[in-house]
Amino acid sequence: MSLKIAVLVKQVPDHEAIVQIGADGNLDIEDRYVCSFFDEIAVEAALDIRKANADAEILALSVGGKRSVESLRRAMAMGIDQVEQLGDDSMAFASGLAVANLIAARLKTFNPDLILAGKQAGDDDMGAVGPMVSGLMGIPLVNAATSMDVDVDGGKVRIAHSMNGETWTVESGFPVVVTAQKGLAEPHVPVVMRVMKAMRAKIANTSTEDLGASEIDSTGRLKRLGYYSPPTRPPVQMVDDVNELVGVLAQRGVV
Amino acid sequence: MACNEIWAVARISDGQITQAGLQLVGAARELAREKGLDARAVLLGCDRATADDLAGVIDGVLWLNDERLNEYDAAVHAGALFGLMEVRGKPVAIFAGTNDMDSEVVPRLAAMCGAAFASSCVKIRWEGDDLAARRPVYGGKVYEELALLSRPAVVTVRPGAFDDAQKLAAPGSVEEISVEVPPSSGVTVAERVSSAQGGQDLSDARRVVAGGRGVCGESYQTVEALADALDGAIAASRALVDAGERPHEQQVGKSGKTISPELYIACGISGAIHHVLGMNTSKVVVAVNSDPDAPIFAAADLGMVGDAKEILPALAEAIKTLKN
Ligand SMILES: Cc1cc2nc3c(=O)[nH]c(=O)nc-3n(C[C@H](O)[C@H](O)[C@H](O)COP(=O)(O)OP(=O)(O)OC[C@H]3O[C@@H](n4cnc5c(N)ncnc54)[C@H](O)[C@@H]3O)c2cc1C
Ligand SMILES: Nc1ncnc2c1ncn2[C@@H]1O[C@H](COP(=O)(O)O)[C@@H](O)[C@H]1O
Hints:
The complex is a heterodimer of chains A (about 260) and B (about 325).
Chain A: E1 4-8, E2 11-13, E3 19-21, E4 27-29, E5 33-35, H1 37-52, E6 57-63, H2 66-78, E7 82-86, H3 96-110, E8 114-118, H4 129-137, E9 141-151, E10 156-163, E11 166-173, E12 176-180, H5 192-200, E13 204-206, E14 222-228, E15 237-238, H6 242-251
Parallel strand pairs in A: 1-6, 1-8, 6-7, 7-13, 8-12, 9-12
Antiparallel strand pairs in A: 2-5, 3-4, 9-10, 10-11
Chain B: E1 5-10, E2 12-13, E3 16-17, H1 19-35, E4 38-44, H2 48-54, E5 60-64, H3 74-88, E6 93-97, H4 100-112, E7 117-121, E8 123-127, E9 130-137, E10 142-148, E11 153-157, E12 173-176, E13 188-194, E14 207-211, H5 220-230, E15 233-236, H6 238-242, E16 263-267, H7 273-276, E17 284-289, E18 302-305, H8 308-323
Parallel strand pairs in B: 1-4, 1-6, 4-5, 5-12, 6-11, 7-11, 14-15, 14-16, 16-17, 17-18
Antiparallel strand pairs in B: 2-3, 8-9, 9-10
Helix pairs in contact in B: 3-4, 5-8
Bound molecules: flavin-adenine dinucleotide (FAD) and adenosine monophosphate.
Adenosine monophosphate binds next to helix 1, strand 6, helix 3, strand 8 and helix 4 of chain A.
């Protein structure tokens, strides 16, 4: 059998981009966007599988507007030849539920054996879409995989992930949703030739209507009330001596 | 069908509710009281003794007494909670933890019932009749506040966001409820290895000593010795994990664990935002670093400048002395 893999990717601000709350209460985000950290790991994990299974078919999907196209170009440059954008700019800031709805609708016709997503996206850090796709499609889920061994002929996959203080090695048949944790694969930097080629590629788009999912509300029943600065601690108290330190810790009741 | 309850999903470790679970119960009680709702803890599987124990801290325990829930399976646990909604009605909210199990189960459940979902919340309050949840985004650079406009509102709550629930004067009731439990999803566990490497589970530890590049190699032993003296768990920065010195399960930060112990001692850790994000909700943070300008001091309550190799053994001794 030839394995079919779907990889979900999202374009997000680079982890070093400056993100601030503007005077109007909205976010000022420095214009440095990349394919989300864990999504590149998911892409590489799919490519790793294809190394051992040359006939594996991989489809990368991204929901959203113009920006999402860039994450698909990255996936292409890394070596994935089938990519597709779902929805449009109205889905650019869609909630996890809306994104998962679109992806599940699209995957009904692709019928993947393996769906790979990131553990959490670098912008909303929600960790929702992978588990939500599994719930909507009614298929098994393994979160935050740190290693994965696919046995195509045996029709199963062996995955290691951390589970409340233990490392569990689990086995699942297909189809299954797996989200990528650091360690699952080491994303390579694509060569310039492929980056150039991906830059010129025409990226397919499927609209929300075509997916028969137009009733999906992009808010996912969430309403943003505002942004806040991270809480700060009172200024640090410097101490010179361990006995003084232990004294303060005892006072605070933590030793 | 709806019920006027807030549910806290209780996770059990070694026969006892986890500290994070106790805080969820505390959160459910507090928010339910403000609106005249009932707080309930949901116990998946386990036994009568655990259910009774739980009833000591909450007015009612919904005990899904079904053996098939004792073996963890994300789809089965999500399905059972969905089944509970079928028989009891949709609660106003479901509170769960940020532990590895709930991180699978709860968003899956939210999708199954089309509910609003917010993860890793540090603060929850009422905004009119809706719940509003505050949570870090963009790697913790800013926080957002979201109103959840559905019934149920589904959230996972970070450890340390609420106080542990206090014991009730009179224990609550235990309701045994049978729900439809879906068949196993087919994910089977082939092997389980404790990742603490002899130490405690990091996620639920009250005291944590973490080492970074400043205590690499043999000097990491000073971290272990201090953790020992404190009866705490050990942790590491990504620098040590990437170097292959510590297992990934011990990594604290954005691409590792998020923890909220009562005491976090960062040793030889520079304090990169990616690290700080995993520990900045700890109650008391101590930093030991040879560089007085290390950013970790901005994330600490108490700081000591100097060589960790000298400070940590002295600190371990001072703590042992205090204990005796
Ligand atoms: C997407 C992404 C995700 C990441 N996720 C994580 C994560 O989850 N967790 C994480 O930790 N990092 C993470 N990082 C990496 C992070 O940015 C830092 O590189 C890392 O935390 C640095 O580790 P460190 O502080 O141990 O090492 P360094 O930055 O090298 O700092 C070592 C510190 O030790 C001090 N020191 C040296 N010698 C001594 C001594 N003898 N005594 C006392 N102090 C001494 C130095 O002054 C210095 O401050 C992530 C990075 C990215 C890009
Ligand atoms: N708009 C999107 N398009 C495609 N995949 C997405 C999108 N949003 C989230 N994902 C996938 O779901 C993962 C978790 O995202 P989140 O739930 O937003 O934390 C990401 O790492 C991606 O793999």
